[in-house]
Amino acid sequence: MKPALVTGASGFLGWHVAQALLRRGIPVRALARRPEAVKDLDADIVQGDLRDPDAVRRAAAGCGLVFHVAADYRLWTPRPREMYESNVGGTRNVLEAARAAGAERVVHTSTVGCIGFVEGGLGDETTPVSIRDMTGHYKRSKWLAEQEALAAARQGLPVVIVNPTAPVGAHDVKPTPTGQTILDFLRGRMPAYVDTGLNIVDAADAAEGHWLACERGRPGERYILGSENLTLKQIFDLLSRITGLPAPRLRLPWAVAFGAALVDTAWAELTGRPPRAPLDAVRMARKKMWVSHAKAERELGYRPAPAETALRHAVEWFREHGYC
Q1: Is position 269 within any domain?
Q2: 253 contact partners, CB below 8 Å, separation of at least 6
Q3: What is the pLDDT of residue 262?
Q4: N or C, which end of the chain has less CB nearby within 10 Å?
């Protein structure tokens, strides 16, 4: 059996995708800048960087399936150009390597940030959206990367695109920005909240969605992989029910949060230290990022667990591994 290449297997969602493949008996090849970061995976490790076309081509050689999960996921960076080189240029390198390897299927991991949002409603794969709607370098770079995948599909490469929402759960090593919010709650560092909304999904379910997209998805199509739409207050209330810890009661006006983030981010630009409240994150929080995953249910047979299950998995993992 030909191996499946997984980029980003050292990261949160990529690790879960690799596990989903291994459970099915599919050999995994992982492209990683630091091989020691994926030592817990039963995988063939190829050392290399997404920005190096030769390394990506070596990793993809002989692979029948390619899962491009890797991304530079930061809501603040002192060097935005690096993010575009990884997210856009890296995606182009993976698509070209998959074509050269004759891959039977490519699954490109985009983000819910590339989906259009509807005020007072739910966005889906058909909601109009453009780069003008993208807030910050991360979302802009991922939108441009998605355009590369769509263009490759139009040129005949069998690319399916998935748009995960906000994955949480086990093995959030770094952690991700959403995982950091959960961790701050567990550490008692979340005194207030803003009126925003997220769609929460278990990372393991999103990984299963990747496999379903590979197996049943239509090339050139996008599939939202989410679960429940919740306000931030509802998320904290669920965390309180899971942990017994008090949920924050103070609702912070958006203008106050924006002002604090403005100062915090300006200080980060001077010091080079990441801000606790990046300005782009507060700008994103102005909209409730609520979407429907009905298309993935209908076409892929995607069936995610409730958000409470995902949050419980995250809490248990953080506690078991000494994060709090």
Answers
A1: no
A2: none
A3: 83
A4: N
For 69-83, 149-163, 262-276, which range has the lowest pLDDT when averaged over its residues? 262-276
Only one residue has tokens 């093995």, namely: 171
pLDDT over threshold 80, residue 240: yes
Q: Residue 217 sits in which domain range?
A: 4-169+202-227+290-306
Residue 110 to residue 212: CA distance in whole angstroms: 16
Strands (DSSP E) contained in 63-214 are 65-68, 105-109, 159-164, 166-168, 192-193, 197-202
Nearest in space to 164 (alpha carbons), one of 244, 71, 257 = 71
CATH of residue 206's domain is 3.40.50.720
- The span from the CA of 306 to the CA of 112, in Å, is 18
Domain count, the chain: 1
Element (H, E) at 31: strand 28-32
Q: What is the pTM of this model?
A: 0.95
Alpha carbon 143 to its chain's center: 13
Query: Is 193 a catalytic site residue?
Result: no
- Specify the range with the lowest mean pLDDT, choosing from 173-182, 205-214, 233-242: 173-182
Taking residues 30-55, report their average pLDDT: 92
With beta carbons less than 8 A apart as the criterion, state whether 157 and 95 touch: yes
pLDDT at residue 106 greater than cutoff 80: yes
Quickly tell me which residue has 């856009």 as its tokens: 88
Catalytic residue selected from 73, 84, 138, 302: 138
> What does the buried/exposed string (b/e) look like for 159-180 if buried means 16 or more CB atoms within 10 Å of the residue's CB?
bbbbbbbbbbbbbbeebbbbbe
- Give a yes or no: residue 175 inside a domain: no
